[in-house]
Design a protein that fits this description.
By secondary structure, the protein is an alpha+beta fold. It contains four helices and 16 strands. The longest helix is centred in the middle third of the chain and has 19 residues.
């Protein structure tokens, strides 16, 4: 999941924004892209007003090569300009340049953070941007608000040559994935792996190993992926979370698993490669 995009994150521009810039404009969580070209790209204009887009809020993201990158948000009822459309990021994963997609993943989270942090949660004073940092500062009480990142573990549990897959209640029939859950306050990542597996399917694990990570902006997660070895117990499903679960050989993986965009799929594909499926 590593990438080498030439993007430099900055809370403020290092030089004047006086040339056409890359604008990551969102309507909710949908990104404005140019449909007239393949792959789709975000507008490169001096201002979104140049293509008839009126922003409610905007913020600086950083630099991408020789271009400034900015994010903006429009009203939920706003229509795209001719030749453009608003698309969810999941649909754009393989339909826009990878470097722009990675910046869009940052941008959608920062737009949501900006939207949801207009006032101080302690004293209700309007927040201001903090100089030199990606943060907001309350001028009255001094409270600082940084962009929220919610860490979550995701784990591929192996039992000899079989992989534990489950269908969550929120997923459609036939869709299976590895287990995942949010990290709780005061909990290590390894403890979160043990707890989530125990809570959701009732088994113990050991030999927990780091696999990789992925920002997951739906809305603000950082997925931290692990592999683990089955260490005992029988499958006992958490009724409020898991509809089905079982152990699958590489040759009998379910037909519907997570899409290539996700680190869940990377974990499953890694298991399949190491067990002769690919």
């Amino acid at each position: 999941m590593a990438n080498d995009i030439p993007f430099v994150s900055r809370p403020l521009p290092a030089s004047p924004v006086d040339s056409p810039s890359l604008w990551f404009v969102f309507r909710g969580t949908r990104l404005l892209v140019d449909m007239r070209v393949e792959p789709h790209v975000v507008p490169r204009v001096l201002s979104p007003a140049d293509i008839g887009v009126s922003l409610e809020r905007q913020q600086y993201l950083g630099g991408l090569g020789d271009a400034h990158c900015l994010a903006g948000e429009v009203d939920e009822a706003a229509d795209p300009p001719p030749g453009y459309a608003f698309y969810g990021l999941r649909r754009l994963h393989d339909r826009m340049p990878a470097v722009q997609f990675q910046v869009a993943v940052r941008a959608v989270q920062l737009v949501a953070w900006d939207r949801d942090n207009q006032y101080c949660g302690r004293c209700q004073t309007p927040l201001e941007l903090k100089a030199g940092e990606r943060a907001k500062l309350c001028p009255a009480c001094g409270l600082t608000r940084y962009p929220r990142i919610s860490p979550a573990i995701i784990v591929a549990v192996h039992r000899d040559d079989r992989l534990l897959l489950a269908r969550a209640l929120r997923h459609p029939a036939g869709f299976y994935s590895v287990l995942a859950g949010f990290v709780e306050p005061g909990e290590s990542l390894e403890d979160a792996v043990r707890r989530e597996v125990r809570e959701e399917v009732g088994v113990a694990v050991d030999d927990i190993r780091y696999f990789g990570s992925q920002p997951w902006p739906f809305p603000d997660s950082l997925m931290l992926a692990f592999t683990a070895r089955y260490a005992g117990g029988e499958l006992e499903l958490e009724a409020s979370e898991i509809a089905e679960a079982g152990w699958y050989a590489a040759s009998e993986l379910p037909a519907t698993i997570p899409p290539p965009i996700s680190i869940a799929r990377a974990l499953i594909d890694d298991f399949a490669r190491r067990n002769g499926r690919y």
